[in-house]
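S.,

Sequence below, as promised.
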Amino acid sequence: MNNQVTGFGWAGLVLIIFSFLFLSGPALRAQPSAQDTARPISLDDAKRMALERNLGLKSARAEVLSARASTESRRADFFPKLSAEARYSRAGDLQRIRIPAGSFNASPPLPPADADVTTGALANYNLRLTLEQPLFAGGAIYYSYEAEKLGYTSSDFSFQQAVQDLLLRVELAYWDILKTERLEEVAGQQVSDLKEHLRVVKASYNAGSVPYNEVLKTLVNLAEAEQRFLTARNNAGLAKMAMNNLLRRDLAAPMTAADPKGDEATQLPSYDEAVKAARDHRMELAAGQTRVQTMQVHQHLAESDYYPKLSAVVNYTRAKETTAVIPENWEVLGILRWTFWEWGKTGREVERTRVRLRQSEDDLQSLEDRIALEVREQHLRAAEAREKIAVARAAIEQAEENYRITEERFKAGVTTNTEVLDAESLLISARANHTNAVYDFKAATARLHRAMGLPAASTISTEGERRP
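The prediction came back faster than expected:
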């Protein structure tokens, strides 16, 4: 075997190692870093990772950068343009002009005999340098630039909307992880309680105080609790996979969410305050207002075709000198172009932009109404979830006391096993309701903040690009 290895050679071994590293490189890069898995991930950490890694956000940012480049390109139309043109030609033969004898009235007659005169040259060249400055275009240049600026602003608003939507999805996924983990703990606690109760029931059966069917009934309830525990554990795993997917981590990577302690229901703003915040901060409204402004600019741009276009042009030419060509020359021109008849084309285009302007204004009003409705709905849901927390907390205290008393009465032989199982079921239901109420309130608050336009308060910039 040593001979075979030696025959294979070090080159082959290096090739194998290189191939392994090359093929496994992407997979290794896809694995979560030690920093990702070494500690619980806070909500701020999750949002930061999502903003850094989300591909949809990168695509939206690229749209902003593209719009900025387009705006800067359009701005160049304000300034003079310098162009150059070069021509070179070569003829197969020189041009000749025949001059008959006596064509010129002179004495003696000129020419005395028919003559052939050559013109030009076999090879010719012509160089032209042109400087053109638009002086008046009916506002077309200005409004074209303004339209591009508004397009850039609109793309930036779309980017910020994408940021808000992503942050909301991350926050909802975060609370879903904690919710499913707590529900898993509740289901696990039920299994533990039923196992302890089964021990008590078996002891009572051995003492002859309860029939065997009570043991069987407890076993059935324990089996059902174990099934609920398995479902709860699976739900927790799915919630972690969803978060890993948002953060572009390996789906099976360990995920531990840091739970902010306490289930206090924070104070909610009033509905009027929430609506005012939405009007001030919702990117959708700002984008709608930008669309209205854009259509106003497009209307002015269409109207610019009613006016003439005036430009100043400076030409400098240099050519091969011939009998008919001056070798070097310059000229200054004023060029006026005015298309004043196109069978109503300009008027119809202006009317089209007016219709689109009215449409964008109606769309903006409709958007304001939808946002007000959305804020109202999310505000009611958050208020409802907050009230449920206090009710669920009181229900837990009552259910725990009821279970304790029922269990003690069963041990004393003054109540039935069925009463204990019912009390235990009420306790688990109260704990689950409390967990749902706590994290439903957190999720409802996140949705309310999104409806108010708050999550994107300068969370991320489009890489610091300056406004044109």
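Confidence is low (pLDDT under 50) at residues 1-32, 456-467.

Coffee later?
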